[in-house]
Specification:
By secondary structure, this protein is an alpha+beta fold. The protein is built from 11 helices and 14 strands. Helix 1 runs antiparallel to helix 2 and helix 4 runs antiparallel to helix 5.
Length: 362
């Protein structure tokens, strides 16, 4: 087939798909040009007389978040990363505060659920940055919500019902118990939601100076050395069987949820290569996106713990669902995330262990 004929045929298919399925046209175009040796991060649309028609078709079928210019998202992401780094400075200055004589810990719902004065200091610093640069954006911060799963669940419901633009969801120190004890297993989480869709996710590890970040539809990236090194992340494609998987188990504060999680640990321990209980969703979700960890399951997880990491994993080619296998949304609280290849195997193991549902003890 001559090049001109091939191009015409390809463009006809693209135009048809654009009027019926925007996702399909993206996939078709990307695959077509990658196979010819091109590297594409966004769909490449050739310039021709059909471009305006295609653009109008895409605009008509685009979701609200897709109508926001990419440059807007890039600017917001830059500021989200800056806010995370600022919180990271506070973390580095006070890690181990509970292990070396400072009386900074307060119990929230149980001895497993604590808060320090530095959680609030981190959130205040982040919030001041956001409010200065985006005075019309809403903010949902963990430290502004009453303790307990029911309160966090309601806070998200209320926030989403009143959100008609951008909302920032903040976890200033994820892994507070680790932080207080002096362990380098905590991080900062920043999620940005447009209406009810997570569009930006940031998980920052201040100890390793690793910034895991994503914009919806643009892939997931890892930046190191203050951003001087940046690389795209992908979930592990080599681990396709649960027997080769390293799985992180949830460590919920609720007793009944914890008991359910431990049932899963016992069941998975004979099936997987290794089980970990890291107690920091910021790191475990980011590590799955980076291909370091295979899967993570958890119970009664708040939106500020999960929204950013969920988007990172999806953009890195992984999968996240409710722990019962149903579709993940911002309101999902019991979840399984993975590299995708072992997802169904882990879901099956959880169901066989009766580790899918629980009743809150309080």
């Amino acid at each position: 087939m001559r090049p001109g004929i091939a191009f015409t045929a390809t463009w006809s298919i693209i135009t048809f798909l654009a009027t019926n399925n925007e996702i399909a046209v993206r996939a078709f175009v990307a695959k077509s040009f990658v196979s010819r040796g091109h590297s594409v991060s966004r769909p490449f649309i050739p310039s021709c007389n059909h471009a305006e028609t295609l653009g109008n078709a895409q605009e008509a079928t685009a979701s609200p978040w897709e109508k926001i210019p990419l440059e807007t998202y890039q600017e917001i992401l830059s500021n989200a990363e800056f806010a995370a780094r600022e919180a990271g400075k506070i973390i580095l200055s006070h890690v181990g505060c509970g292990a070396f004589g400072e009386d900074t810990c307060e119990i929230k719902t149980s001895i497993k659920d604590i808060v320090t004065e530095y959680d609030k200091a981190c959130q205040d610093r982040m919030q001041s940055i956001i409010e200065e640069r985006y005075p019309t954006h809403k903010i949902l911060g963990e430290e502004d919500v009453e303790p307990g799963a029911a309160a966090s669940e309601k806070a998200l419901e209320d926030a989403l019902s009143d959100n008609d633009e951008f909302m920032w969801i903040l976890d200033p120190i994820d892994g507070t118990a680790n932080f207080s004890s002096g362990m380098a297993l905590c991080g900062v989480i920043v999620s940005v939601v447009y209406k009810d869709i997570a569009v930006i996710g940031v998980c920052y590890d201040p100890f390793a100076d690793e910034m895991f970040s994503t914009i919806k539809g643009q892939g997931a990236f890892l930046s190191k050395n203050q951003g001087s090194i940046k690389e795209q992340m992908f979930v592990s494609s080599a681990v396709t069987d649960i027997s080769d998987a390293i799985i992180n188990a949830g460590c919920p504060a609720d007793k009944n949820a914890f008991d359910t999680s431990m049932k899963a640990v016992v069941a998975l321990n004979t099936k997987a290569r290794g089980i970990r209980v890291i107690a920091c969703t910021a790191l475990t979700t980011a590590w799955i996106a980076a291909g370091r960890l295979t899967a993570h399951y958890g119970y009664d997880i708040s939106s500020w713990d999960l929204a950013a990491g969920a988007l990172l994993i999806q953009e890195a080619g992984g999968m996240i669902t409710d722990i019962d296998g149903s579709k993940y949304t911002l309101k999902t609280r019991n979840m399984l995330c993975s590299n995708g290849h072992v997802h169904d195997q882990v879901l099956t193991a959880l169901k066989e262990a009766d580790a899918v549902t629980f009743e809150r003890s309080s």
